[in-house]
Amino acid sequence: MNTTLPGYVEVAVIGGGPAGAVAARMLAQLGVTVALLEAGQHHPLVGETLPPAVRPVLDRLGLRATVEAEGYLPSVGSWSAWGDAEPWGRDFIYSYFGHGWHLDRRRFDALLREAARAAGARLVTGASVMASAPLAGGGFSLALADGREITARIVLDASGRGASFARQRGVRRQTLDRMVALVGHVVRRAGADEEPAASLVEATAEGWWYSAPLPQDRLVVVFMTDSDIAREIGTSTEGWLDRLSAAPHTGARALRYGAGLAGPPVIVPAASGRLERFGDVDWLAIGDAAATRDPLSSEGILIAMESGLDAAEAAARALRGVRDALPAAAERREAGWREYLALHDQYYDMEQRWPDARFWQRRRSRTLQAAE
Ligand SMILES: Cc1cc2nc3c(=O)[nH]c(=O)nc-3n(C[C@H](O)[C@H](O)[C@H](O)COP(=O)(O)OP(=O)(O)OC[C@H]3O[C@@H](n4cnc5c(N)ncnc54)[C@H](O)[C@@H]3O)c2cc1C
Predict the structure, then answer these.
(1) Ligand 1 pocket, 19 CB below 6 A?
(2) Is 295 in the pocket of ligand 1 (CB under 6 A)?
(3) For the chain, which ranges sit under pLDDT 70?
(4) How do beta strands 8-14 and 149-157 pair?
């Protein structure tokens, strides 16, 4: 739903993905005037598995029952042929929080935006923020692609890995790797057996695969590799299938499930990286705009939502005059990044089967590089 652009708000949130929508809902619930500006470009949406630990976040937002009523596929566990040819894993039946979900991402993101609007946020779709300028008395003016303008005391940059506002502020992005995803959707064959609603990860010499059933009779099958290796493969179905033959568990699953791909594989950026700093006294980057994590963690949506909640509370404190509220939230993002790096190293160290393969060698010697 389009709403008119207000001239001024206390907080402008750029980007209506999970981070921005959650921040906008929480800000509205805290009584702050907030605009949620969503460009609404039709880019491929990836990231479909919501871990069980999202439940407390949904509770804080008052959205647990709404999400449960959506009928997403329960995600009952996750299995990995990682460090070993045979898959090992865990059933969420033993998880404290119960099961997670395999989502229809477009529907889920739209649900969160609608929840922000219902709480009182001004949701403006088709609102692509192209430029920004600091105001003399504090805050920013934002210019949209269609020429409209809005001013705000505080800006939350939730624009995803493009981090458009932070980059306009001159903050550079640093990347840890050059990972991309080659995404295929297998269509379910009539009469195919029910596929266990669990995600499966499988390492190969040139990267790793993940697969998960989705609502509407699709199995998402994704090859995670580096951009140079992806260039050698290309985006032809034949090249993708050829690499799939190196992943016997994933290949067997795709064959059991369906007859073929809904279309040629789509290539999606998936590099881990971060902004060199996450914010200042009057702006903060959240979700993927602040830092992107290796999809192996399967936590991007959860972290985005948690950072949205945290940023909303920090912005409300900043508006009450607590000058270091947003810098303190930025410091919490720093701590999260340090934890992520430790986990990243721990997981990649577990896979030692291809010590000479370039994909795995690169993950043993990580350094942050300026983004290309
Ligand atoms: C291959 C792959 C698989 C993944 N799998 C999972 C998974 O299974 N589970 C999981 O939890 N996570 C997964 N992730 C990560 C997850 O998708 C992201 O972490 C999550 O989408 C981040 O949410 P966000 O709101 O920060 O950003 P986004 O979802 O990227 O949302 C940003 C929004 O900002 C808007 N926008 C951009 N620029 C502007 C602008 N200038 N003005 C206005 N609006 C703008 C965009 O249109 C978009 O709607 C995966 C990622 C990849 C690459």
Answers:
(1) yes
(2) yes
(3) 1-2, 42-44, 90-97, 366-368, 370-372
(4) parallel
